[in-house]
Amino acid sequence: MTLTQAIKIGSDILNSAGIENPEFNSRYLLTALLDKNLLYPVSCPHHNIDKFVFTKFMRLVRLRSNNHPTQYLIGKQWFRELQIKVGPGCFIPRPETELIVEQVLTEFSPEDKGIIIEICTGSGAIAIDLANNLPQMNIMAMDISARGLIWAKKNQQNLSAYDNLTLVNADLLNCIISHHHIRAIVVNPPYIPSEQIKYLSLEIQNHEPHLAVDGGEAGLEVIEEIICQCASILPEKASLYMELGHNQHNAVQKLLLQQGFNDIVFYKDFMQYNRIVRARINEII
Predict the structure, then answer these.
(1) pTM of the predicted protein model
(2) Residue 209 has what pLDDT?
(3) Residue 99 and residue 36: Cα distance in Å, rounded?
(4) Distance between CA 135 and CA 148 in Å, rounded?
(5) CA distance 16 to 12
């Protein structure tokens, strides 16, 4: 059987199951299985695959037709230049989250020293990226989910981020005390209102950890707790970098101001939503 024929069979199955972009999904699964790039079927459409490969491919297609995330099936997700291992129990890093790393890296240089704390680390993508780009910083990555930290540990090992990255199983900042060496706290918190979870994709509803997305009644419960903790932990001029929902910037700004943050900047994502906030408490002269 040729690549073209196999992709067509997979595409038809996925289409019947109501999966969006079935041809792309089929091609993505098969090329990942063969360790080829997405253009390989175009350049080598008559490449033959054996029965063993086709059987494995059909298993992946069946799982995908039941809304298993593609990234879980192939075991990886790209995050900036990093290939992050993902699987059940691990929230899949999203492209918009890359912006938080990019903004942190505009503030700090590879020569800067101090401590950066990331909470809700999940796969560890943010922390590992920061550790690689800021080798003089001590990065502490924390998550309440021991299952999620298993994936962070796998990525730490796979990407050799040992020297300046520590993983901690902890609830938000409960084990942290204020210290003048803390330069930033970084977080992609759960911010989806609980009642909106049922409207998310079936991949998220049925397979990804709800702990990583459910932000309570208004989507602000965890965010508010983080802001309160950061107000007492961050030294003057240190930064809080946080991702937020596309319509939450006004509410988040109000919470920040209530806790004494007076230097607040929002950064837009590629859809022009205020997606990242950077906040500091600076001395008023």
Answers:
(1) 0.93
(2) 96
(3) 28
(4) 24
(5) 6
